[in-house]
Structure formats: structure tokens, C-alpha cells
Amino acid sequence: xxxxxxxxxxxxIALALVLSIATRQVILGLFAGLYLSVLMIHGPAxxxxxxxxxxxxxVPEVIDPYNAGVLVLLACIGGFVAL
Length: 83
What we know:
By secondary structure, the chain is mainly alpha-helical. 78% of the residues lie in helices and 0% in strands. It is built from four helices and no strands. The longest helix has 18 residues. The termini are far apart. 5% of the residues are buried.
């Protein structure tokens, strides 16, 4: 049984928002929030957390055909916005 959620569970979201607004880099903010959440779940081991983030969370989502299509679409939209 999972423990009851606390206010600490909002830390990754707060980090993502603050970094995204402060640096104007949304990808950096989202990646930092995701990395913090992996560290909170799997323990404070930075290298193991990065490996877990890539191996267990990012790669399975990117190789899914639907998600890959959405990422390509978002990249195209971002390219048109940059024009």
C-alpha cells in the first residue's frame, strides 16, 4: 500500500514551473521536474536516477508510435512558431 501523499509531492511540479518561467526553456523545466520525481521515488542517487529516468521512463514513451508521432507534430508546430 502506498503512503499518503504529502505536500512534498508538489515539489517536481513547482520546480518545473519555476525553471520554465525563469529560464524560458520549457523542456529544461519539464526534464528537471521529471528528474526530481524519479529521485524522490527511487532514492537520492543522481547517476542511478538519471539511468532510471532514461531507461524506464523516457525510452519506452518515445518508442511508442503514437507518442513519437505526437513529438514530431509538436516539433513541426514549434518550427512554424519560430518562423
